[in-house]
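During the no-cost extension, the postdoctoral fellow (Dr. R.K.) reprocessed legacy sequence entries with the updated structure-token encoder. One reprocessed record is reproduced below for audit purposes.
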Amino acid sequence: IGLQLRYLVNTVIPANAEADRFQDLTAIANILETYEAWLMFDVCGAAPYTEALKLASDGIRAPRYDLYQKDLNGEPLYKVFDQKVKENIIVLQNSNENQYNLGNNDYFYKGDIAKWIKFSNTLRIKMAQRLEKADNSFYKGVLSDVLSNSGGIISNQDESCIYHHPNE
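Re-encoded structure tokens follow.
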């Protein structure tokens, strides 16, 4: 999943003549890639991330492992994940009518950017909750930041991130 999402963000969209119309798609892909990476670290605790998926771009065949508590750059990876999601929420909140509408190509929310913002805010809380005891000030800061965000959080079943398979 990560390889395809990074390829989309780093290669496909920049090569498109109308790349500026795909900022929402880029933000959604970044959020999904971060979500998948977080799930992996939540289960494994250590995995390649900083150097991962860089064979084609940087020739890295054997990426070094990052730790959830500290990535290869010395930063807590959980803070890197949170910042990435937060930055992409801002992109979605600044969306405009010129953006390509994903419609039925978005199997989760059918291109509803407001729901993607709610998913992302909720994801930030979910990721921070794992650190409530280990880094309480970070947890409280994320919680405060998200709850003051005008985009809101998932509050009912209709806003849940569910994959609606097209049966094809």
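The radius of gyration is 16 Å. The first helix runs from residue 2 to 15. The remaining legacy entries will be reprocessed before the final report is submitted.
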